[in-house]
Write a structure and sequence with these properties.
Blueprint (H helix, E strand, L loop, with lengths): L7 E2 L2 H5 L2 H9 L1 E3 L40 E3 L1 H6 L10 H28 L1 H9 L8 H27 L21 H19 L3 H23 L6 H4 L2 E4 L4 E4 L26 H14 L10 H5 L5 E5 L6 H19 L3 E5 L11 H14 L4 E6 L2 H4 L10 H15 L9 E7 L7 H4 L4 E4 L6 H12 L18 H10 L7 H14 L5 H14 L5 H15 L6 H5 L9 H11 L5 H48 L1
Parallel strand pairs: 1-4, 6-9, 6-10, 7-8, 8-9
Antiparallel strand pairs: 2-3, 4-5
Helix pairs in contact: 2-4, 4-6, 6-7, 6-8, 7-8, 10-12, 10-18, 13-15, 19-20, 21-24
Amino acid sequence: MSLTSDQMELREEDIRSHYEAAAALLEGFDHTPRIASGKAAPRAERSAGLGTRRMFRSTTPGLVTRSTARPEGVQLLARIEAADGDDPLVSPAQASVMSALRRALSIAMAMAEVYGDQTGLADLKRANLEGSLPADKKTVFSELLSAEALITLHVFGNACAFLLTPQLSEVSVEIGEVEEVLSENGQLALHGALWELDQDIAQFASDDARLVACVCSFAAQLMEKVSLRAQTAARLEPFERAAWKVEADDFAIRGFQPARAAKGSTLSMTFKKPHEVVGNHIAKYQALRLSKMLMAYDFERRLNPFAELGGFIFTFMGDGMPGTGKTTLIQMMAGLIKGYCDNAGYPFRYQNLSTESIDSYQGKSAQNAKAFINNVLDPGVIGFGTIDDIDQLAGKRGDRQSSAGQLEITAVLMESFAGANTVVRGNCTFGMFSNYPENVDDALRQRAGARFLVDGPQSRDDYIDILALLMGKNHAIPLGKHELYAAQEIRKAVARSFESHNRPHEDGLMRVYERVEADIGKLDTLAKLGTYLKGIQEADARFTGRSIKNITDAVKVRAMDFELPDEWMEEPERFLFKSYDEKRGMIEELRRPITVEMVIQEINRYADSEFRYADKSDEAAIAAMVRDFGRTEEAKRRYLEGKG
């Protein structure tokens, strides 16, 4: 993939110029640990010795460090060679790790060199070496050196993880927190990081699979620690506001964001065809359209025209009774997107956040949820993330039955779906599914931009269709007077479903609608629609500004109420492979004008769901209180009988 418009090239010749220095670091250096304590067993010295290695002079002004800790020789190549025991030959996995480490170190050094040239740090280093550094520049010099150290460490970890991720197996290694993070200057920072990596490899890498997993885990922990430090560090703006690309590796550097190889996930689920989703007409229709919307994403611009024009569904919630088809809907949507991506040659990544992500270890549940979010958000892939049974996974704040792990997941999802740093590029979508949406935290539920009511088969025709579908073909029972799957013809079914929302479905909302209409007449102006919205808010205080945003987003989706032609998916040259501006123009030509009917229908659809959730939640709470009162009365009766 070529450079995007906002990227600069990190030249290959500049990277390779650091190969010798990187190799020297891997062969050996001395390091006195300052923060961490040693974990590894002593290693027999190799004959090469450290005395022949090139020495590096610190450029930190006035830095004098005294420590009683014993210097330890770090010979990372020897450590990696010994990871599989006594085998005298270097395995392919070991060679790959060595090569990735040298490459990552060289990229980090080249990036630090670019930063030094941009900020004047290189000139200050020369002045310091010559003893001519002005006194009034020492503070700036120290801040720039600290920034260089953080940049060097993060780029090293980022490149290392990026290069080795394709070689990861199912084996995982938990190395714990990275401690030896030094920020005096880039060279010392690498010494500390490589020293700790050497310790971790000695402790955890007993075979090739664990070696790769150990290095990748270390790289991830290093990036996380450095990113936290960078939040309060100075002089990082030139690095954070720009982007670089290493063309040979297709590796992008964007501030302190982790890069990921554009690698899709291997799916083993059973895919469903649209006609196999019986009923659920609006949910099925929106899933079909969203699947095609995702394919409009432009990998060069890193943006989807639908996200720019409005009408892109970033988060949605599917709710319904058990057995109404939520899993089938997921299988249909994942299958459609994967098929489109396979045809276009795009990487597709599907992930589900399951209850296994809840961990009793403090902070681990949040880490699992954040890793799920980041994997799906990866701008190098088309992503689809699902959270099935979200009422069990994410805790409801204020609910004493919610565990700490569940509340951690709730916090991560809320921040990721509508936080200050949320960026919707249009390359991915998240679906939350639940049989009991009333048990989902109100604020998290309102972060679902669209609502898919998954109510299953409804009509007589639906029930005949699902019976015929599930019976299969191993029978001779005649069909009878019925046109199979005709009721599932999506356009007619969706039109009927939308029209049904011209008036509310829930009794509580119907009372508000009828009262407002009786007071001000037909809802045909923005002022009257706003009055209706205020009436809803008076009936349900949870109906806030976020609810209005979700409704207007849904209206914009209706303005995009068209399906991208199947030919555009089947023949990528007709749409998918066109430039961003061409795709945007083609979409704008298909856009429909917004009507009053659309707005009323979407207000009713959204408000119906909130009233439905509230009624169920209140009823569940009342039923629980009735049970508690009954227990109390029974306890009193038994107590009095015992006394008598």
